[in-house]
């Protein structure tokens, strides 16, 4: 259950980052409120995951899910572009997240 909470926390991390982008510098109230709700939900589920997972495991995976998820949202919905070298480092980030999970023993 802790892993589910951690994945949900990571998904809310992507959600709030996306809503913050759409808030246009917190000038659009509805997206600004959704940003704050997403942040609260992300922290809530991260806290839940920390009941069973170590911080040294949960925190980097949470931020990694947020980072990679935000990159994917940026590419798909905001027409962001990544250089080949940047794409390589994103791949390394994904490999790192998987490696942390696989070697954690949880």
From TrEMBL:
The reply on keyword Transmembrane helix is yes
Residue ranges annotated as transmembrane are 27-47, 59-78, 84-103
Topological type in the membrane: Multi-pass membrane protein
GO CC term, one of those recorded: plasma membrane
Give the UniProt subcellular location, in the record's own words: Cell membrane
GO molecular function: any one? transmembrane transporter activity
Keyword set includes Electron transport? no
Q: Main localisation, per the record?
A: membrane
Q: What InterPro entries has UniProt attached to this entry?
A: EmrE-like, Small_drug/metabolite_transptr, Small_multidrug_res
Q: Which UniProt key words apply to this protein?
A: Cell membrane, Membrane, Transmembrane, Transmembrane helix, Transport
Pfam families attached to this UniProt entry: Multi_Drug_Res
Top-level taxon of the source organism: Bacteria
Q: Which family is this protein grouped under?
A: Belongs to the drug/metabolite transporter (DMT) superfamily. Small multidrug resistance (SMR) (TC 2.A.7.1) family.
Per its UniProt record, what PANTHER family does this chain match?
GUANIDINIUM EXPORTER, SMR FAMILY PROTON-DEPENDENT DRUG EFFLUX TRANSPORTER SUGE
- Name of protein: SMR family multidrug resistance protein
What are the top taxonomic ranks of the organism?
Bacteria, Bacillati, Bacillota, Bacilli, Lactobacillales
């Amino acid at each position: 259950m802790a892993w589910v909470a951690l994945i949900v926390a990571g998904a809310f991390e992507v959600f709030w980052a996306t809503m913050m982008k759409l808030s246009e510098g917190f000038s659009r109230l509805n997206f600004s409120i959704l940003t704050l709700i997403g942040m609260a939900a992300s922290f809530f589920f991260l806290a839940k995951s920390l009941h069973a997972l170590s911080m040294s495991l949960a925190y980097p995976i949470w931020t990694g899910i947020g980072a990679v998820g935000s990159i994917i949202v940026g590419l798909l919905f905001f027409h962001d572009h990544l250089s080949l070298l940047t794409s390589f480092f994103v791949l390394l980030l994904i490999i790192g997240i998987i490696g942390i999970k696989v070697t954690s023993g949880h």
